[in-house]
Specification:
alpha/beta
């Protein structure tokens, strides 16, 4: 749901050799990274939708600090393409992506290939009070998922939620077994998207081990016997797996699907935009645990020291409560703010109006009354994506 606001500016291509020093920098050198004397142009790629929330905040920074930033260009790409795109530029010594905004999927793929600069603890001085300022669940994601390479910019408890059309679904499944029975009785009327490129898809995949009582919810290889069996059993009753969540919302909104997997943000935002009827309802399955998710800011290896200095300053700016308030947006990642003390009343009026109209009163109780789990660690997430692709997705050709 982000918007492509321009092409990457190739005049800002950076030679790889000059920036190797950033990667190898010692902590002491990193902490003395000076801001540039002349403004730089920044190129931001978004593979998760964070710009839909935060582009206004990026522009606030550009307006506030013209001595540091001359221009910010934005481009979007699918998360599965991110790692190969960045690696190709690094191998060519011509990195023209300065910041990546990504969910845990793109972060994990980049970590696996060692694409990101390790920002923390080397640049801790740029983020005073960071741990204390994060919401507790956002801090967990920042530490366990980000691992110093990704800085959490937005957070939400995510899902997995069932979203259904109440006029067509009269017996709403209350357990995983009932969902399977419903899917069998209503072939091709249930859908979720490929987990490697879908927040709802991956929270469904990672939430099932809790719902099904699997041996180890954090080990998709040795601890998910019930989950993989369940997903394989569900497979014949799903027509196909879209490459992204947007397609599931569109088909649900048009009436070709009666029930889909959703999250708080994917429930609120498409209803606010009119893609999904406002009458759509949500439900959870017995044994439900939230599987939290976040957007992260990462910087590819190969970015110049001048740009890195500005990017660190930009990241700190984006974590201020006034900028975090933009992340309520149109409910895309509800609630959205990753830091404490950012009530809805701080958000722009249009955001407040949308959340009041399309938000759900039951979310407060669902969030406070159910465990909020971490997603898989990046390496385990990559393993889970691969196994899903091989054992579930590939069976659809």
């Amino acid at each position: 749901m982000s918007h492509d606001r321009g092409k990457i500016d190739r005049r800002t291509l950076i030679g790889g050799a000059a920036s190797i020093a950033v990667v190898a920098a010692t902590g002491a050198r990193a902490q003395s990274l000076p801001l540039p004397k002349a403004p730089v142009a920044l190129n931001v790629i978004d593979v998760g939708g964070a710009l839909a929330l935060m582009q206004k905040a990026f522009e606030e920074y550009r307006k506030a600090k013209p001595e540091l930033v001359s221009r910010i260009t934005y481009v979007k790409a699918p998360a599965p393409e991110l790692a190969s795109k960045v690696k190709a530029q690094q191998d060519a010594g011509r990195v023209d992506i300065d910041m990546v905004l990504t969910g845990s999927d793109g972060l994990a793929a980049g970590l696996e290939q060692n694409l990101w600069i390790k920002l923390l603890p080397a640049y801790n001085d740029k983020f005073p009070g960071l741990d204390e300022n994060y919401e507790p669940a956002a801090l967990n994601l920042h530490k366990v998922q980000g691992q110093g390479f990704g800085v959490v910019i937005n957070y939400y408890p995510s899902g997995p939620l069932l979203e259904y059309a109440p006029e067509r679904v009269k017996d709403v499944p209350k357990t995983a077994e009932e969902l399977l029975a419903w899917a069998k009785a209503n072939k091709n009327r249930f859908m979720y998207a490929r987990p490697a490129n879908s927040g709802p898809g991956r929270t469904f995949m990672m939430g099932l081990p809790y719902i099904l009582g699997d041996k180890d919810p954090m080990d998709p290889i040795n601890g998910w016997d019930k989950t993989w069996s369940y997903l394989r059993e569900l497979n014949p009753y799903i027509e196909y797996y879209p490459a992204g969540t947007g397609a599931t919302m569109k088909e649900f909104g048009e009436g070709s699907r009666d029930m889909i997997i959703s999250t708080t943000g994917w429930d609120i935002n498409p209803r606010a935009l009119g893609i999904v009827p406002a009458s759509a309802q949500i439900a959870t399955l017995k044994g439900f645990h939230w599987v939290s998710d976040a957007f992260f800011m990462t910087v590819p290896k190969g970015v110049s020291e001048d740009k890195l200095a500005v990017l660190l300053d930009l990241m700190a700016f984006l974590l201020k409560p006034e900028q975090q308030a933009f992340s309520y947006d149109e409910g895309y990642l509800y609630p959205g703010p990753a830091v404490k003390n950012v009530p809805l009343s701080m958000a722009p009026k249009e955001s407040q109006d949308i959340i009041r109209q399309f938000g759900r009163p039951e979310y407060a109780e669902l969030i406070s009354g159910n465990p909020i789990e971490l997603p898989l660690t990046p390496s385990k997430m990559v393993q889970a994506f691969r196994r899903w692709d091989e054992e579930v997705g590939s069976k659809k050709g």
